[in-house]
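User: Show me a protein chain along with its predicted structure.
Assistant: Here is one chain, sequence first, then structure tokens.
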Amino acid sequence: MMGRQTGDQSQLFYLFNLEELIPASHLLRRINPVVTRVLAELRENLTPFYSDIGRPSIDPELMLRMLIVGYCYGIRFERRLCEEVELHLAYRWFCRLDLDDQVPDHSTFSVNRHGRFRNSAIFRKLFEAVVRACMSAGLVKGEGFAVDASVMEADASRYHGQAPGETDWSAPERQTRAVAEFLSSLDDEGSDADRKLPKVISPTDPCSAWTAKANKRVQFGYGLNYMIDLEHAVIVDVEATPARTYDEVAATRTPEDRS
């Protein structure tokens, strides 16, 4: 005879250990010891960027662990990431959150990415720590490398491109971090001072480049230039540039100098 689920979810209290629910073969449990070692010096690097007064801030290790979860499981949007960590027990365990702990608001990531994390270069330091961990584990042989670029679409409308001379950079709506970095780069170019500005530029993200490389559709984008060790395809360095061939070729020298 056909069975019928009779539970009415009337139990109010449950007693269980979150640690015991995550199997040993789970990806997050397997990488957790390495992540713990990599994040060991995190607070020391970030301490100068936090105030000694005011309310306690959100633990930066929590935010970075959440971003690692997003990278491992292809969760690209921070709003969605916060929702998944809220519901998924394994994600909570990896982020060291109890069932009644509050998950940070998605806006916290943007504020820290453009502030403390950016000013402290913490993502670069963490990346290099991961590469060192891969080297210690024998995953980087160091005998052969490949450098290639993939194009990432910029958060800029392809329909609002302008000629550089048409944009009023002093307008209130142009007083953004992206515009400030673009104008600063024009002052710091030095030997590239004779290079002409591109014909089309985004007024909201002027550092991006007008390109058709990604999917044959003209858009504003960036090139992510990866240096990969050929033994186990481990990424050992990355440099972001505007999606222009000139910048991508020049960017290959940066990983070589760092290595």
